Amino acid sequence: MDYQKLDPTLAAELDAGLRAALGESTSGARELSVFVHVADPVRDADADRMAQRLRSMGVIEPVQPGAVLTMSVSPQQVAELSEESWVVAIRAARQLRTLS
Hints:
This protein is of the alpha+beta class.
């Protein structure tokens, strides 16, 4: 896992949750809501692998370079995504509040 791509909140949450998830299948692990920041530009060699990986995680729309995706993934999938060259950062998704 590339911890440099994770924000501190997500890294702490993974540290606690990943130990338990390592012995389990990804279907049994608790899902985390995250923002995945995609590189801009994505190298041509990585574009097909990126599309295939994201399709396997349920993203069916084409993803533009520089996009930010909101995903629900297992701790193991966060670890796998952090190793991808086309992923710039992964941050824990938070409930946003209005500025009124």
